[in-house]
Design a protein that fits this description.
- By secondary structure, the chain is mainly alpha-helical.
- 60% of the residues lie in helices and 0% in strands.
- The longest helix is centred in the first third of the chain and has 19 residues.
- About 5% of the residues have low confidence.
Length: 279
């Protein structure tokens, strides 16, 4: 956005110099332009050049001028000069997003735009606490479960209203910390079993894999530990042919041993494995 207005500024610099001659730049000269768009562009340039938003007052579309100058100079005070609510909200939101300052979102009138402002900044700055400011429950939940956040605090999961999303969050914390005990708080068995598997993989704990009653979770656990440790024997415990081939491939690449790729039954996967293991 700043590049676009820089081009506008340069164009009007040439026009203003031509209009002002030897007298130098004078915002009053903007009145000499017959076209409303040209005059507004001149006032925008004048306000930008002098870092003085008040020069926008005489512009035909002064709110656009105020907004442009505010955003280009990252000066939220200039947004307050705008009477049009939509334009003012957009002004505050853009500067808040550019500067990653969630405090500016509080100046936005529209509840929807305000929530979106907090959501954007939370994701851009990886500050999960910013999500606390969001009013709409669905948006707030979406903010909390953002995959970009490293989830190491169970208390954050407690803030999520949606049950399935909350349990998914608990599983993420267990996987990140390797604490299988967190999985006990999960009600849905399939998610709980996968959660335990993730924690087991984190610590390379094969014994925990053996305790899993859900076969899919157990197979996933074998695959994860085999791939992490380079333990080919664990690949033999995997029932699915596709996952077994994947396991062989992961171990071969980890050990840089292309000969292990010969155990793969899928020709294309074997070819890719051989190429990657040889690197």
């Amino acid at each position: 956005m700043k590049k676009r207005y820089l081009i506008i500024a340069l164009v009007f610099l040439v026009l203003v110099i031509a209009a002002c001659g030897k007298k130098g730049f004078d915002a009053e000269s903007c009145k000499n332009f017959k076209s409303a768009n040209a005059r507004d562009g001149c006032y925008i340039y004048a306000a930008l050049a002098n870092k003085e938003a008040s020069l926008c007052f005489n512009a035909n579309n002064k709110y656009h001028c105020y907004s442009t100058v505010a955003i280009e100079n990252s000066n939220a005070d200039s947004c307050s000069l705008i009477d049009d609510k939509a334009t003012k909200d957009s002004c505050f939101k853009q500067i808040a997003s550019d500067t990653k300052s969630h405090a500016l979102c509080a100046n936005i009138d529209s509840a929807q735009e305000k929530d979106d402002c907090y959501l954007r900044i939370a994701r851009a700055s990886n500050q999960i606490d910013v999500c606390d400011n969001i009013e709409e429950i669905a948006v707030r939940d979406a903010c909390y479960i953002n995959p970009a956040f490293k989830k190491t605090d169970v208390a954050q999961c407690g803030k999520i209203s949606n049950s399935a999303a909350k349990q998914g969050c608990l599983a993420s914390v267990a996987a990140e910390t390797g604490n299988a005990g967190i999985c006990d708080e999960i009600e849905i068995n399939s998610i709980k079993q996968r959660c335990v598997a993730e924690a087991a993989i984190k610590h390379g704990n094969l014994e925990v894999c053996e305790t899993l009653s859900d076969n899919d979770a157990k197979q996933y656990c074998y695959l994860g530990i085999a791939s992490g440790k380079g333990d080919l024997s664990l690949c033999e415990k995997i029932d699915s042919l596709q996952n077994k081939n994947l396991c062989y491939s992961n171990v071969a690449i980890l050990k840089k041993d292309a000969s292990l790729c010969n155990m793969i039954t899928d020709d294309r996967m074997k070819e890719v494995c051989t190429a990657n293991a040889a690197e």
